[in-house]
Design brief:
The complex is a heterotrimer of chains A (318), B (138) and C (406). By secondary structure, chain B is an alpha+beta fold. Chain B contains three helices and five strands; from the N terminus they run E-E-H-E-E-H-E-H. Chain B has two domains: 43 residues, no CATH class; 95 residues, 2-Layer Sandwich (Alpha-Beta Plaits). Helices cover 12% and strands 15% of the residues of chain B. Chain C folds into two domains: 245 residues, Thiamin diphosphate (ThDP)-binding fold, Pyr/PP domains (Rossmann fold, 3-Layer(aba) Sandwich); 145 residues, 3-Layer(aba) Sandwich (Rossmann fold), CATH 3.40.50.920. The relative contact order of chain C is 0.11. The chains are: A alpha/beta (318), B alpha+beta (138), C alpha/beta (406).
Chain lengths: 318, 138, 406
Amino acid sequence: MSEIKKIKNLKEFSTSADRFEGANLLCPGCAHSIIVREVLNATNDDLILAASTGCLEVCTAVYPYTSWDASWIHVGFENGSSAVAGAEAMYKALKTKGRLKQPDRTPKFVAFGGDGATYDIGFQWISGCFERGHNIMYVCLDNEVYANTGGQRSSSTPIGASATTTPAGSVSYGEKKNKKDMLAIMAAHGAPYVAQVAPNKWKDMVAKIQKGFAAEGPVYINAMSACTTEWKFAPEDTISISDLATDSLVFPLYEIIDGTQLNITYRPKNIIPVRDYLGAQGRFKHLFTKQYEYLIDEWQARVDAKWEYLQRREEASV
Amino acid sequence: MEKKGWDGFEIGAMLRSFEGAVSGIATILPEDRPYSASSSFTASVADWRIQKPLFNKDYCIDCQFCWVYCPDLSIISRDKKMVGIDFDHCKGCGICVQVCPTNPKSLLMFPEQIEEEVALAEWPTKNTSKATTEAKEE
Amino acid sequence: MADTFELRDIEVWDGNMAASHALRQAQVDVVAAYPITPSTPIVENYANFKANGYIDGEFVMTESEHGAMSCCIGAAAAGGRVATATSSQGFALMVETLYSASGMRIPIVLNVVNRAIGAPLNVNGDHSDMYMGRDSGWIQIDCYNPQNVYDMNLIAFRVSEDHDVRLPAMVHQDGFMTSHTAQGVKTLSDEVAYNFVGEYKPMNDMLDLDHPVTHGVQTEEDWHFEHKARQQHALMTAVIPKIQAAFDDFEKLTGRKYNIVETYNMDDAEVAVVCMGTSVETAEEVSNELRAQGIKAGVVGIRVFRPFPLEQIAAALKDVKAIAALDRSSPHGTVGALFNELSGALFNTDTKAVMTNYIYGLGGRDLTKAHLVEIYNDLKANADAGKPTTPLQQYIGLRGPKLSFF
């Protein structure tokens, strides 16, 4: 196995030479790019990358430009996982047959997909790849909406969010269904490592990516990606919104090892009210009206219950 | 980029990041990379900006928050020091300013057209009305 | 290192077994597949070879045909020999990715064991899936029997992977009629077969870590047209000569001669049936019988369906007086695809031939010799009259009132 890159603090991390380039077409303030940088910079190993159709894909490989400094492939919306799994299978085959051009190097295989590509349309393909045990990492850039196509709801869109296909209106508070628990589903595949990460907690992210790279088998990373365009906040607030998400525990940061051992990796010193998180985003604006205000309390109750559940799971160690 | 005819492309709309072979790219800094004309590194999104961040070295503590949270690889850090901004790739989102922990901030947003010397001359002094934020690594 | 499989000079194989052995002998690096009738035995046989030490490559059993082809594309883009197999509904599920593979210029060999597409659901052989693939940008080679399947697989790798081609290729055989019908198949030794296919030569391979490559970009209105034109140019100009060269080499190696367009009894033919798959051999037999009765009957078999060999077809049919285009797929709203293709090939030529269209054999319905006799008799009447004596499109072998259009 290859050496794990030493990143003991941010100064040391900042000596990384990015393998992702600027002048991509992502929105100003897009968290996708911050996440991709943190993932890629967590290792100095060679990388073979794939992306499913979505914001990241359409903004980083628009002919005649590529923003990738490692081999990268896009096939379709649903199959970034399968594409990178195919490349991983070819790596194994050529290794067996002694035909690798650089046999002393062990690339890491990583696929990126949005929550639409992951929770919805690509779900079956991801499940297949995880069941088969490919040595790949799948990173979901979870912005809870089909942002690339203009803000339609996905099965990751949380209750009460106004999306273009579940708009808030005089008789509707927006999305009616709770967000799918993708991490639990991927853990249930018996994956050696799954984790939820957020770009504002870079050190937690890098540690988890490194654990993921060190694991043998398929690794799932659910990365919260605050979306300035669809969550409706100012581009400069991407990190502060992310802080609200992690510190309100709307996005708790934890990992599950071998499908069972759950560890909470970030405990906010001051847990802030969910109300503060919701109030900072235009997609929840309508919740702050008499008609729909009850949903904020429901939100808080759900977040509290989940946090309680996670702590008990951690304690029980099963 | 020149708009070639149909017979002038690589097959499959394939793109190369670099001219020729590059080994160990993860340890080669941009200035030493043989980027191809197809790398977006060679392109500019400067015209996306209506505001630009400017950097005042006097106050910078090299915490690297701006580097790690810049979505557009536009904070240039070398040897653990913040050395400047890449204005070809900066889209003017303002995250670097938001995450800058010094007082006064070492990065501030200014109108795109302002001269750097003018901006530096206008730089605010220490704000004592708010508690100073300590730069701590998370 | 994989064991050599000792083969007899002639093995009794069905089409599926012939395909499996060809994949094994080509030393495919990655097979990613999903089982579907009637192609399933191809991957079952292959799995069996793998389980018994005859294969060094990776074998990935995916969760769907779409996943299989997605995996194949990733594997082939990574830089090695890739193959798979499918049929029918599975082929339909794959279609999105077929366009990706060809557009990205990724060589893959796909064995398509032709089967009807529901509804109503049907597991038997017709050409609906083959026709569904005809605009996908793949090379499509058609087989008439298990021997063809074995030979065409070896040839397909060579052509598809050629750096002047770099286009994926389908090898078609008729579900059950070829895939499950055992016949004598002349074999090559593992070494000879592999040497004919040749070593895989990578190009734009993702696993060349010193040359990072981006595959699968987006091109909008200012670039897309040129890229699709470039793809069409390769399919139209490079493929037929490369197939011909492979056929020539294959003939030298084995004595078995293949042609871009197969012709039988065509030298002096007045009437000709044009068809694909197992129907070709049935038509050949009937043409011999009719010749004994004084009807100058010939057969044209399509060997290469894509790229469609327009000029070769026109040349093969230039002297006949009446032609029947036989389509084994429901044309759903127009004439059969083969009828259309032949019309395109013959229009603007000097031919005065009368051409009609027969829809036959859907869902595995037999095309009998009696049906072919009927068709040839229609053609004879058309040739004598110098104009169609029947409706343009007729259903043959169908129960109930006679069905025809145009």
